[in-house]
Amino acid sequence: MKAADEKNPFADPGLPPHEPRIQDLDERAAKRSERTVALLFTLSMLATVGFIVSFVTIPVDQSVYIFMLGHVSALNFALGMTLGVALFAIGAGAVHWARTLMSDHEIADERHPIEASPEVKAKVMDDFRQGAKESVLGRRKLIRNTMFGALALFPLSGVVLLRDLGPLPGTKLRETAWSKGKLLVNMNTNEPLRPSDIIVGSLTFAQPEGLDPHEHGFMTEIAKAALMLVRIQPDDIKDKQALEWSHEGILAYSKICTHVGCPISLYEQQTHHALCPCHQSTFDLSDGAKVIFGPAGHALPQLRIGVNDEGYLEALGDFDEPVGPAFWERG
């Protein structure tokens, strides 16, 4: 311990007296700690095996009821629990090992510059140049080129493993549940829509016929196929294609905002503007749903519609471009 003086006004309190642990005095206590650490590491191994078994055996669509959580994915719950236990057991075992069995004598070391001395720097550079010379990479071009090739190709192994993340998307991002002849069904009543159901100034939400909310994959499909219908006097429709793709002034646009995919639900009938409530992107539905304000970068895709022999509104095809936020420059 150093006393305070003029140069160092604060006294060094020093280290407290060392107190031995029970494991330092009793070998049986040390053995118990050793078994505890081994048990934790064994638990981690079992949890890792459980993680692998869960990944292989539990179906993706299986659910399980967990108290306080409700119904959750059995696979996600099993993977999260086993991985969490595996990591926690390793950490707890390492901490218990360090606190009870490793040396606990405190060692103080004076601070010193971490920069190497000029002599050490010079020696390191000399050793590097000598090593480069002895490697004969300059003369053995075959070895050099094949080594670079091996190092460049090796990371591809990790890229290939990414293939196991799931099935390839194919054209799913470019296609929706809409197709020629699909009826426009009211989202609220689940009934097919007639032109008379859409009045001027109203906003109606629709979906393709055949989508069942209780079926697996419904949310994925409706996230791409959700539709909003608005009726405008044909003389007020500015965009020529929008008018051609409408029916008696009924326009069908994607309900999914092209900014970050929020559902559009606000409509101002005097201006024919639709507003996204998330970030206030505004679209002019009378002018091809072009963006007139906000961060959205693209107009809302329009669905070409008509009327079938029974007088119901139907789609005449799919959207002509991907819906929602831009990806890969709109596909």
Automatic annotation (TrEMBL):
<keyword id="KW-0472">Membrane</keyword>
<keyword id="KW-0812">Transmembrane</keyword>
<feature type="transmembrane region" description="Helical">
    <location>
        <begin position="37"/>
        <end position="58"/>
    </location>
</feature>
<dbReference type="Pfam" id="PF00355">
    <property type="entry name" value="Rieske"/>
</dbReference>
<keyword id="KW-0679">Respiratory chain</keyword>
<comment type="subunit">
    <text>The cytochrome bc1 complex is composed of a cytochrome b (QcrB), the Rieske iron-sulfur protein (QcrA) and a diheme cytochrome c (QcrC) subunit.</text>
</comment>
<protein>
    <recommendedName>
        <fullName>Cytochrome bc1 complex Rieske iron-sulfur subunit</fullName>
    </recommendedName>
</protein>
<keyword id="KW-0001">2Fe-2S</keyword>
<dbReference type="GO" id="GO:0016705">
    <property type="term" value="F:oxidoreductase activity, acting on paired donors, with incorporation or reduction of molecular oxygen"/>
</dbReference>
<feature type="domain" description="Rieske">
    <location>
        <begin position="224"/>
        <end position="314"/>
    </location>
</feature>
<keyword id="KW-0813">Transport</keyword>
<dbReference type="GO" id="GO:0004497">
    <property type="term" value="F:monooxygenase activity"/>
</dbReference>
<dbReference type="InterPro" id="IPR036922">
    <property type="entry name" value="Rieske_2Fe-2S_sf"/>
</dbReference>
<keyword id="KW-1015">Disulfide bond</keyword>
<keyword id="KW-1133">Transmembrane helix</keyword>
<keyword id="KW-0479">Metal-binding</keyword>
<dbReference type="GO" id="GO:0005886">
    <property type="term" value="C:plasma membrane"/>
</dbReference>
<comment type="function">
    <text>Iron-sulfur subunit of the cytochrome bc1 complex, an essential component of the respiratory electron transport chain required for ATP synthesis. The bc1 complex catalyzes the oxidation of menaquinol and the reduction of cytochrome c in the respiratory chain. The bc1 complex operates through a Q-cycle mechanism that couples electron transfer to generation of the proton gradient that drives ATP synthesis.</text>
</comment>
<keyword id="KW-1003">Cell membrane</keyword>
<keyword id="KW-0249">Electron transport</keyword>
<feature type="transmembrane region" description="Helical">
    <location>
        <begin position="142"/>
        <end position="162"/>
    </location>
</feature>
<keyword id="KW-0411">Iron-sulfur</keyword>
<dbReference type="GO" id="GO:0046872">
    <property type="term" value="F:metal ion binding"/>
</dbReference>
<keyword id="KW-0408">Iron</keyword>
<dbReference type="GO" id="GO:0051537">
    <property type="term" value="F:2 iron, 2 sulfur cluster binding"/>
</dbReference>
<dbReference type="InterPro" id="IPR017941">
    <property type="entry name" value="Rieske_2Fe-2S"/>
</dbReference>
<comment type="similarity">
    <text>Belongs to the Rieske iron-sulfur protein family.</text>
</comment>
<dbReference type="InterPro" id="IPR045603">
    <property type="entry name" value="QcrA_N"/>
</dbReference>
<feature type="region of interest" description="Disordered">
    <location>
        <begin position="1"/>
        <end position="21"/>
    </location>
</feature>
<dbReference type="InterPro" id="IPR014349">
    <property type="entry name" value="Rieske_Fe-S_prot"/>
</dbReference>
<feature type="transmembrane region" description="Helical">
    <location>
        <begin position="64"/>
        <end position="95"/>
    </location>
</feature>
<keyword id="KW-0560">Oxidoreductase</keyword>
<dbReference type="Pfam" id="PF19297">
    <property type="entry name" value="QcrA_N"/>
</dbReference>
